[in-house]
Structures are given as C-alpha cells and as structure tokens.
C-alpha cells in the first residue's frame, strides 16, 4: 500500500469536533484527486480519541467516479493502564454513499475488532463486508472506540482507492439457504442458534461449522455474526436434507447483545444505540417484520457491553445458557425463573428459555448447549413457532435424551410449554425420563416456590406429585454434582433443563 509524504497527509480533528450530516460526530473529510494514469491512490490520516469519546465516530471519504475497490486498514495504540482500568479497543466498519442514518441502507460491513484491514469491490469483499459497486459519493469509515484508556486512543486509518479502465465487475447474486429441510415430520429437533465464523470474530469457516453441527447431531443451526449479514450467502452447498441453516445476526450494542433468530436472508439490523436512546423497540420490530425472533443473549455476561439493559418486553425468548455452564448462566436461570413467577402473578405472557453454544473457535464446542424444539417439521416457521411457544428444552449434547410431562385426573396430560387444566386441589403427577447423562447426576423439579424435589437420576421414570394450589408450574433440571469444596447450597453445572409445564385453570 503506497503512502503519501507527510505533508500530503490530511489532518483530522478529534472525535468531538464536528457534527456531520447524519447528526453523528465526524472527523475531517478525506478527499482524493486522481493522478493521471494512477491505478491506486492512498491517503493516511491519524488522530487521537479522548477518554469518554462517543461510541461511534465517522471518517468521511470522498469517493470519485471510476473507483473499482475501496480498501481500508487501521491501527491504534495500546498503552499500559493501571490494574482494573480498561485499555484501548477500537472496532471498525464502513457505510457507503447512501449515508450513516440509523437503520438506513448505507451499511456495507463491520468487522468489530477482528480485522485490521478490509476491501470492498463489486465482485467480492472481505468477510464481514458486502460486495457491491463502489459508487461515487461520501462514504464513511466508522470507528467504534469500545474502550478507551485514560491516555486516549491514538489511531491511524489508511484508505486506498483502486481504479480500473474496464467497467466495474458484476456483483454475484447471493445464494441463500432454503427455509425448509426434509425433517421427520412432527418431532423434536436439535439446534444451535448462536454461532460465529470468520465473517465476524470467529475462526471457523462456514464449512467447518456445518461439519461440526453434523458431528454434534444437530438438525439445524442459525448463523449469527456480530452486526453484519455477510455470512448469509456463505453457506452454498453446506445445507442438506439433514441440516437446515437459518440466517440471523447477533446485534451487538453497548448495552447488551440480542440474537435476531431466523430473519429473512440479507436483513440487516442496526446496533448503534444504547438503552437510554429508546431505539431498541424499533429494531425489535424490525427483527419480527423480517420473520425473526428477538432473543437476548447471555443477559448476565461479564464482558464489557454484554449485560442486557433493555428489559424483556420485546423479547420472544431468552438465552439463559450460553456455552459451557458458568455462574452467569446460573444467574440467568434464576432471573428467568423469577420472570415465570411474575408472569403467573400478573397473568401475562411468559418468556421461554433457550441455550446456545456461542462457539467462535476450537476448542469451543458447537452444540454445547443446544435447544431441542418440538416442531411440526424442520422449517424456519415451524421451529420458530415451537420456540415461541416454549415447546423446548436445553441439553449439553445430543447424547442427552429427555421427556417431561404432567398428568392429572381423567387422562389429562400436558407437555413442556403447555398448561395442565386442573382444579386447585386436583392431584397431578410430574414425570421425567432422562438418559445419556453423566454418572452421579441429580434431577430436580422446580416450581414457583423453588426446588421442591431432588433425586439421583435413575433408569425409568422419576415421578413427583403435587397440586395446582401448591405449584403454579413445574419444570425439570438435571445437574452434575456440586463441585467439591464449593459453597454450600450452590448447585452443580446444568446438563439439561426444560421449560415449564403450567398447572391449574387459566
């Protein structure tokens, strides 16, 4: 990449200097004057963002006619910081001449902090970015200072425009996965709906993820890259009668992450807002309008920006188990259970639980955990209906088998996610069968009062009797033994858990 002499470098303002046309902080505009016969022109700009910089700052780039490819590279400093203080981390992406308006059409890609350079042309683009014509106008490189050290964040951005004498190449027509696979009719289907590839910050290719999904015994997966849809068209030849691939996005905001599960292929959902902006409801509607489900991810995650701050009024389900079971999952399960109690108390809609791997790279395991959904067939619509209704349970692997129901008088019975209609004092029996779990596991029946019955897992059915007046709902958990030397009363890691069966007259 050829660099201009120092006197040719454009000076930049700090992030807070200017308000751009889109109403967002911008830097000074990068302009290009094409040299006679020059195949490429490069400009490098540098500056410093202060501690407390805006979440996103925009570097306008004037793109003249005749450009076939735009390439961007960036670096930033990482000074030492005191213990307990966040250091520098800066994300990057780009918007084209259509602008940077929130939810607008200008989005052309995002790689977060996973890449230091990218390129876009009509024919192709770096993973995370969308191929298409490089039209003349004002493009914007967006910097996202995720965390900034007390000393500030010194950055350098290099933009290269490559010209061509031939007409611009054709943009490949995207080939998206089908919305249905053969399946087994009405059955329990296993899926992992939170996965990352090289199209965001993952290390696996789509082909490697598809192979891992098949090895894990999954029936379907959802591709959910951070803040980009570039992977939607990256699965050609990887689906089949045995594997359905849905498209989606992990919308990664500064106040929490949400999985847009099963949106129409090519649907982009913006992420540039916080809870205080009051914008999330708009984008939750955008997800649903595109045929997707709104699923807050790892709501009690401990990474910066991972903790969910938007409330759950707009959610269709919640991811309570993310990857190997950890204390933040335990908090998520407890908080979700409290929401079940509130739903019973206030007689309003309850929120089903899900589990996904959030796998990025080896040795993270695709399908640990997985959500097992009762659906009429292996299709986007049927699976989403099952998830929305709570006809699902979560397992650490496909080796775990489980059935759970509650029966009452006169042959009545209800399965996971359903209601057993019975009088307040009618005796009912919760019945669990489980296999394929490690030795020494225990099974627990949990109600609105908390855990009321725990027993070692054994062959055959595990039963417990109660009444609707005593238990508003019953759900099942299977756990490993508590860690030796752990705090008293702290349960062991989850192996499987169900959504509830509700009891009593509606």
Q: Please state the average pLDDT score.
A: 92
Give unreliable regions as ranges.
1-23
Cα(first) to Cα(last) distance is 68 Å
Give the CATH H-level superfamily of the largest domain: Metal-dependent hydrolases
> What is the makeup of the main sheet?
11 strands, mixed
Instruction: Tell me the CATH architecture of the largest domain.
Output: Alpha-Beta Barrel
User: Per the principal axes of the C-alpha atoms, what is the gross shape?
Assistant: elongated
CATH topology term of the largest domain: TIM Barrel
Structure description:
By secondary structure, the chain is mainly beta. It has three domains: 6-163, Jelly Rolls, CATH 2.60.120; 181-398, Alpha-Beta Barrel (TIM Barrel), CATH 3.20.20.140; 400-506, Immunoglobulin-like. Helices cover 10% and strands 34% of the residues. It is built from four helices and 30 strands. It has helices at 206-215, 280-289, 327-346, 380-389; strands spanning 18-19, 25-26, 40-49, 57-63, 67-76, 89-95, 107-112, 117-121, 137-147, 153-163, 187-192, 220-223, 244-247, 249-253, 256-261, 293-297, 318-322, 353-356, 370-375, 392-395, 401-407, 413-415, 419-420, 428-435, 442-447, 450-456, 462-466, 473-479, 494-498, 501-503. Strands 11, 12, 13, 19, 20, 23, 25, 26, 28, 29 and 30 form an eleven-stranded mixed sheet that branches. The chain has a four-stranded antiparallel sheet with strand order 3-10-5-8, with no helix packed on it. A hairpin with a 5-residue loop joins strand 21 and strand 22.
